[in-house]
Amino acid sequence: MESNKTNRSVFVTLVVVIFSISLLGILLAGVSGATDNTSDRVIDVQELGDEDVFFGEQLTVTNGSDGFEGAVRIKEGIPGDDGDVVKTVRRGADGTISFEITDDFADGAHYLVDTGSDEEYGVLWVSENRITVSFTAIDNDTGTLSYTDASDHPRDEPIDLSVTAETISAAELETMFTESAIESVRTDGYDTLILENITSGEYDVDFSAIEPENIRFFFERVDTGATDNATVFREPDPVFDVSIPNDGEVYTVGFPGPINDTYGEIFGSVDHEGLAMYQFNSSEQAWQLMSGTDFDAEPTELDAVAIATTGNGTDTIRFQIPFEVQDVATPGSHSVSEGWNFVSASKVEHPETVFRAGSSDATVILDRFEGTSSPFVEDEGLFETQTGSNVYFVGSNESLEVNPFKGYFVFMQDDGELPSIVSGTETFLDVAKQLDIELE
Question: Could you give all domains of the chain from N- to C-terminal order, each with its CATH number?
Fold first, then answer.
């Protein structure tokens, strides 16, 4: 069977079938993966004076050209004052040992790599692997970046720092970091820039080539994998930049509060041949293709739509969600019907807290499609990546989190109202706070 990539008519057929068959068919879903951010390092026990190592690091330890003769004990303490054995590691075929700095080790403690000889010890100092990066925008064109190695025992030599930003290309990033203190910059694939030979301190940033917007940057220390993010606020209006991949699959967009533009204004600049948008009709329990005057309407609170992408054009479809500027306002609500409804979440929260807040009782919440990506919303992915199932039965007490810029199927026992939260917002920060979005 062909996937959703074929055309939008296939998408319509699939979703109609889904809602025509039993609930068992509805509960089928896809799987997403996760990544690991540990780093590998090779060190020589004969050269270890007081080596700093970080949680999550995978270490390979050599013993000069001789290699280890047998199993090696890792003991807490320092030479002459050693304590309990934390880990015993067998030598490999090449005479080395390998192990990970796990929770068996204690933060801020010293450990001995006991070679079996009274004169050959290596000392490890285990510490948290932390960096701190922050931005200060002086005006729309200039600012400063502050970098601090906040590890308990930082390495003294300059390091390489990678920087990415979802809405900024690598070429644009390169225009931002021009100060001579950063000895050189080089690109390392799309949207990634490597700042070389960075030390703790402040660096000038040039925003003049970048459109005024709120940007979240992600930093990673290349050698240890330590990460941090920093946000620069240059656009005070309550506008959120979001995106979806253009890969032929179906994605959803949610509107958690009052919106200032029509569907046509929000998506009108998105030019991708064959792109189709659908709204779910709870009365008909079916999807309907949006066309004509449908795009003249403004999304109401907690509306959500599905977008069938085609794979034609750019790899990513980007658009903005502008919230209505209000001095004082009463929060709105969304009408729901008995049966399945397709709605956005009102905030970043547990699904049961959000979808049982109204006058109708939700019993099942289904996370069928991937949602939007935003630099400011840490999307935890489909329910399946969080708990192993894309369906949540109310009362099952599983740890989950919903994304307010995404659509969810919610089964309601009766007709009723589902409350929105966002109201009386004048700035980007107002909206972020009401949606419980952590910006730092």
Answer: 8-30+239-424 (no CATH), 40-127 (2.60.40.3720), 131-232 (2.60.40)
pLDDT of residue 309: 92
Residue 120 confidence (pLDDT): 57
Q: How far apart are CA 34 and CA 244, in angstroms?
A: 18
Contacts of 307 (CB under 8 A, 6+ apart): 244, 250, 251, 252, 253, 275, 276, 277, 278, 317
Tell me the residue length of the chain: 440
E strand or H helix that includes residue 308: strand 303-308
| Lookup: tokens for 159 | 């390091």
- Residues near 89 by Cβ (< 8 Å), separated by ≥ 6? 71, 72, 73, 74, 97, 98, 99
Q: Exposed/middle/buried for 237, CB within 10 Å: 0-12, 13-18, 19+?
A: middle
**pTM assigned to the model:** 0.64
HSE value, Cβ hemisphere, 13 Å, CA-based, for 162: 15
Spatial separation of the C-alpha atoms in residues 270 and 264, rounded to whole Å: 10
Give kind and range of the element (H or E) at residue 25. helix 23-26
Q: 111, 74 in Cβ contact below 8 A?
A: yes
List average pLDDT for each run of 10 residues in the chain, which is 440 residues long. Answer: 39 35 28 36 76 82 84 85 87 89 84 73 78 84 86 71 82 81 66 85 88 85 83 84 90 94 86 82 94 93 95 85 84 93 94 88 91 80 78 84 94 93 89 86
DSSP conformation class of 174:
H
Q: Write down the pLDDT at residue 154.
A: 65
Phi-psi region of 108 (alpha: psi -120 to 50; beta: other; left: phi over 0): left
Element (H, E) at 9: helix 8-20
Secondary structure (3-state) at 13: helix
